[in-house]
Amino acid sequence: MSIRFDGRVAIVTGAGAGLGRSHALGLAERGAKVVVVDRGGAVDGSGGSAYAAERVVEEIRDAGGEAFASALDVTDFAAVTAMAQDVLARWGRIDILVNNAGILRDRTFAKMEMEDFRKVLDVHLMGSVHCTKAVWETMRRQNYGRIVFTSSSSGLYGNFGQSNYGAAKAALVGLMNVLHLEGRKHDIRVNTLAPTAATRMTEQLMSPQALQLLRPESITPGVLYLVSEVAPSRTILCAGAGVFAQTVITETEGVYLDEAERTPEGVAAHFAAISDTSNESELTEAFHQTDKFVRMAAQHKGID
Ligand code: NAD
């Protein structure tokens, strides 16, 4: 099986550097027309320059691909909407959106300024919401769309000093879960990437040996699969250093406590069984949990 993107139109945000650049080059190399979105600027989101996006567009064109640059800020919904209209006017469709733009403003929660918390949520979460909203109707109309959100192990598992970033990155998983359900009828598949790569975002945090192994290019094949015609949906794909894994959110079977035991002490007494992961399962819709609880309670009460 060969994965190609001929005739497909892709938007990649934060594509002027690091992971986004690698994804944009990878898509273009396999035939996609690519919109390289990047406002430039520093890791903390300060400053800005059109140069970052333009340079990657040049790289794509030099390799024989088709691309254009947009130096918009993903927090600006009007600009994002105008860009999507521009893409439709030029190329007639939008098949792929890779939400990748991101910044860091790390502090312990004790020292965190609300402005830095909001700014990080704004770029990662609302930036992804804006870009997705701007292409959603087009993808519904086309009955085809592939969307990737970029999460992080910080959001999935926690990382000291990243309450703002972790909250934003975990929120993207919630957004994926819902959009997967809402997009299914129109073959819009929505997935999440949790990458680990050597970029300017991480170069201070890792040893030279680790940085050597964690090249952004080792992650891009996973993204290309997630936005391909054979993509899964509602998958959290973790990738780094050539390793690919999947994060799955599961729930333990649970324990029914009858009225006599339904006290804080009862929950404490049964907590080992409540949290027993030997019988966990993956629930793929919120109501599956309600159904399970009601079924378990009804069984205990002898109700059909
Ligand atoms: P990077 O700093 O090299 O790239 C991020 C790009 O996003 C930059 O080019 C930047 O200019 C752009 N950008 C930032 N804010 C923007 C905005 N408001 N509008 C438009 N563009 C904007 O960092 P990276 O490591 O390549 O990160 C890419 C994504 O991967 C981010 O979402 C990041 O949180 C995520 N991530 C990275 C790692 C890692 O190990 N590098 C780990 C987990 C998650």
UniProtKB/TrEMBL annotation:
InterPro entries found in the cross-reference section: KR_dom, NAD(P)-bd_dom_sf, Peroxisomal_Beta-Oxidation, Sc_DH/Rdtase_CS, SDR_fam
A GO molecular function held by the record: oxidoreductase activity
SMART domains in alphabetical order: PKS_KR
UniProt KW keywords: Oxidoreductase
Domain Ketoreductase: 8-204
KW Electron transport (keyword) present: no
Pfam families in the cross-refs: adh_short
Coiled-coil segments: none
The UniProt record lists the keyword S-adenosyl-L-methionine: no
PANTHER family on file: DEHYDROGENASES, SHORT CHAIN, SCP2 DOMAIN-CONTAINING PROTEIN
Family designation: Belongs to the short-chain dehydrogenases/reductases (SDR) family.
Listed name of the protein: 3-oxoacyl-ACP reductase
Organism: Alsobacter soli
Taxonomic classification: Bacteria, Pseudomonadati, Pseudomonadota, Alphaproteobacteria, Hyphomicrobiales
